[in-house]
Design brief:
The protein is an alpha/beta fold. It is 34% helix and 29% strand. It has a seven-stranded mixed β-sheet with strand order 3-2-1-4-5-7-6, sandwiched between helices. It is globular and about 50 Å long.
Length: 217
């Protein structure tokens, strides 16, 4: 899954999403950022050039290899790594982060609030219902529930207030290899089985992602 994610992200396919995440995270010029569900470190790598030279990232993921890749990508002078389950209490002190970015990854609202300073921000990227819809019609993949962003804001409401919402939407031309990578890089790689005929794969897909910026209550 990490190999597929690295291949796709390095191709620039999701650069538009990464830039909107980075711009939202950089608004308050955070010095200490937690990348919760860091994956390959791609989104933090897009963010760091927008911050001060002294800013640092804590790359956190349940997968040890993901943390290793992220720290390698970001550089040990800019990043530390943490192997941890987001669903459980995280071994990090209270109020040490100015921003948390969470891109297509599990969320723990109470823990995220605990880790953030009172003026900190949480930036979440989540797919819209028609994200990769053409691919999901061709291959067995998990559905995206309707109104996911609204439900997310409701789930976070005890701890966070929605400040702004941006939608990143565009058509992405894809090859057969890219189609397989798109499926393999996400949760569908674990939960769905079987493949459609190669001829049925689309040549372009819809990328539709909401980027939400929350402030702390």
């Amino acid at each position: 899954m990490l190999d597929a994610r690295a291949e796709l992200l390095d191709s620039g396919a999701y650069d538009a999403v990464a830039h909107v995440v980075a711009e939202n995270a950089a608004l308050a010029r955070p010095e200490r950022v937690i990348d919760a569900g860091c994956g390959t470190g791609h989104y933090s790598a897009t963010l760091l050039p927008l911050l001060s030279p002294t800013a640092r990232v804590l790359a956190a993921d349940i997968a040890q290899e993901a943390v290793r890749r992220s720290v390698r990508k970001l550089g040990r002078d800019k990043a530390d790594g943490l192997v941890a389950d987001t669903w459980r209490p995280l071994p990090v002190r209270d109020g040490v982060a100015d921003a948390i970015i969470n891109v297509f990854a599990p969320r723990n609202p109470g823990e995220f609030r605990r880790l953030l300073t009172d003026d900190g921000h949480l930036i979440v990227a989540t797919p819209q219902q028609d994200h990769l819809i053409e691919l999901r019609r061709a291959l067995p993949m998990l559905d995206v529930p309707p109104d996911k962003s609204q439900r997310l804001a409701q789930d976070l409401a005890p701890h966070f207030r929605l400040e702004r919402s941006s939608t990143v939407r565009y058509r992405l031309a894809i090859s057969h290899e890219t189609a397989i990578a798109l499926r393999a890089m996400g949760p569908s790689a674990h939960h769905a089985h079987g493949d459609a005929a190669t001829s049925a794969l689309p040549h372009a897909v819809t990328v539709a992602v909401d980027v939400l910026r929350f402030s702390c209550l």
